[in-house]
């Protein structure tokens, strides 16, 4: 076993603090990674505070990991020590079910998530990226280009693939009108990708002060969603709307903006249900209300390669690990542009 250390939540009420724990020793197909950077996802907060009622304490959050390989197992032939790599939301899956065979491991019933997930190797729970090192099966390790800032790559491992995957799945490209609801960690990546794919991009926000930034990120227009007259101008006009807001809100105001056969796709997971949408808003124009998780490993690597080609990274604020509790409070106030990333060189034993 490998002696490891990081920051953990010990319960739902107290701040995260230092935690010493053990990781498994690398096996033949494993990769040992020194963690350099880890993004701070809103789901880290949900789980640290047990808002989804599924947390096992102590919990070491973090699933937006970029690091450098220190050691590889004897059967690993696709990576070597010194490689810059990433680890996202998953670290294992069964490999034999229809989802795995179709490279959609995120939907595998036996998927092992990067933290707060039963670990078949140890019989305990997995621990995430707010730590000094991690051991991962080589099939769940992703290659990171040295052309990009590694700290700004980290959020691509969750926020990036969460927005890239649905845009690809629904075939978004030139000639499509795409809406993005919310400008945060997910929303800012959705704008960047939709713009890069050639779509006409409209941001919906409650905050007028975000308009300038949205245009800088690639939006063609910004609509203040609390102004009914502005929303009315877009009725029946969108091919696709990606809703990134992780709080309960009225979905009907966006469903009515879809054209016939348009899709509203939810990627934010609130801690309470959305109000039920009107069925008639779906039926009468054959609209669809859908959801999307992350992407499989193959698609995540595709996304990272696309980002390297297009020079796309997240907009980040780099923080020391000691600032993580303040960062959580600032995320809840939407006081970050647009993703905190922890510099793990600040983690001390």
Automatic annotation (TrEMBL):
The keyword Metal-binding applies. Residues 14-342 form the Enoyl reductase (ER) domain. GO terms for molecular function: alcohol dehydrogenase (NADP+) activity; zinc ion binding. Its cofactor is Zn(2+). Pfam families: ADH_N, ADH_zinc_N. Keywords: Metal-binding, Oxidoreductase, Zinc. It comes from the Bacteria. PROSITE patterns: ADH_ZINC (PS00059), D_2_HYDROXYACID_DH_1 (PS00065). InterPro entries: ADH-like_C, ADH-like_N, ADH_Zn_CS, CAD-like, D-isomer_DH_CS1, ER, GroES-like_sf, NAD(P)-bd_dom_sf. Belongs to the zinc-containing alcohol dehydrogenase family. PANTHER family: ALDEHYDE REDUCTASE. This is Mannitol dehydrogenase.
């Amino acid at each position: 076993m490998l002696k490891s250390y990081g920051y953990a939540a010990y319960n739902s009420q107290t701040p995260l603090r230092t935690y010493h724990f053990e990781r498994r020793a690398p096996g033949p197909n494993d990769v040992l990674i020194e963690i350099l950077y880890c993004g701070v996802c809103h789901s880290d907060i949900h789980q640290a505070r047990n808002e989804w009622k599924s947390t096992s304490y102590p919990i070491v959050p973090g699933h937006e990991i970029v690091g450098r390989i220190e050691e590889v197992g004897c059967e690993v032939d696709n990576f070597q020590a010194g490689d810059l790599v990433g680890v996202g939301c998953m670290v294992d899956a069964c490999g034999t079910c229809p989802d795995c065979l179709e490279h959609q491991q995120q939907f595998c019933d036996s998927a092992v998530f990067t933290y707060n997930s039963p670990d078949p190797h140890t019989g305990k729970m997995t621990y995430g990226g707010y730590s000094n090192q991690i051991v991962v099966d080589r099939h769940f390790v992703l290659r990171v280009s040295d052309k990009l800032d590694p700290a700004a790559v980290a959020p691509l491992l969750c926020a990036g693939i969460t927005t890239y995957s649905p845009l690809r799945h629904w075939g978004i490209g030139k000639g499509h009108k795409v809406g993005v609801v919310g400008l945060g960690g997910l929303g800012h990546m959705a704008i960047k990708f939709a713009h890069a794919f050639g779509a006409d991009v409209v941001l919906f926000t409650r905050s007028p002060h975000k308009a300038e930034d949205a245009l800088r990120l690639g939006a063609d227009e910004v609509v203040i969603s609390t102004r009914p007259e502005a929303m009315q101008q877009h009725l029946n006009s969108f091919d696709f709307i990606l809703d990134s807001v992780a709080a309960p809100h009225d979905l009907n105001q966006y469903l009515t903006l879809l054209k016939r056969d348009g899709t509203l796709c939810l990627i934010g997971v609130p801690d309470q249900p959305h109000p039920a949408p009107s069925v008639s808003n779906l039926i009468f124009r054959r609209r669809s209300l859908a959801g999307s998780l992350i992407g499989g490993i193959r698609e995540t690597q595709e996304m990272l390669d696309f980002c390297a080609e297009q020079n796309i990274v997240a907009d980040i604020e780099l923080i020391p690990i000691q600032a993580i509790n303040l960062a959580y409070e600032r995320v809840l106030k939407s006081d970050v542009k647009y993703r905190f990333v922890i510099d793990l060189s600040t983690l001390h034993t």
